[in-house]
Design a protein that fits this description.
alpha+beta; Alpha-Beta Plaits; four-stranded antiparallel β-sheet; two-stranded antiparallel sheet; 6 strands; about 30% strand; disordered N terminus
C-alpha cells in the first residue's frame, strides 16, 4: 500500500479569475520573486498554491496577496492541512 500526503500550506482563492490568461498574469508576477519555484493553478476552482525554492524563506500570505493585487486580482487565503490519501 502506498501512502500519499496531500498539499499542506495555504491555498489562494481568486474570485475574479476566469481563464488561463488570468492565471498566467498572476504566475508571471509571482515568479519575479526568486523564492518562488512553482505556482500551481486550478482555474475551474479559481485557486492556486505556491511552492517555494528549497532553502528559501517563504513569502507570507500577505506578501503574495499584495503581488496578486498589483496585477489586478484580489485573493482570499485559506489554510490547508495535509491529509493522508490511500
Amino acid at each position: 500500500m502506498f501512502l500519499n500526503v496531500s498539499f499542506a500550506g495555504t491555498k489562494y482563492f481568486v474570485p475574479n479569475m476566469v481563464c488561463q490568461d488570468c492565471a498566467n498574469s498572476i504566475t508571471k508576477s509571482l515568479k519575479k520573486n526568486k523564492r518562488i519555484k512553482t505556482v500551481n493553478f486550478d482555474v475551474p476552482k479559481k485557486t492556486f498554491s505556491v511552492i517555494f525554492s528549497e532553502g528559501s524563506k517563504e513569502l507570507t500570505p500577505e506578501e503574495i496577496k499584495a503581488v496578486s493585487e498589483d496585477v489586478g486580482y484580489s485573493i482570499i487565503t485559506k489554510k490547508v492541512k495535509a491529509k493522508a490519501l490511500q
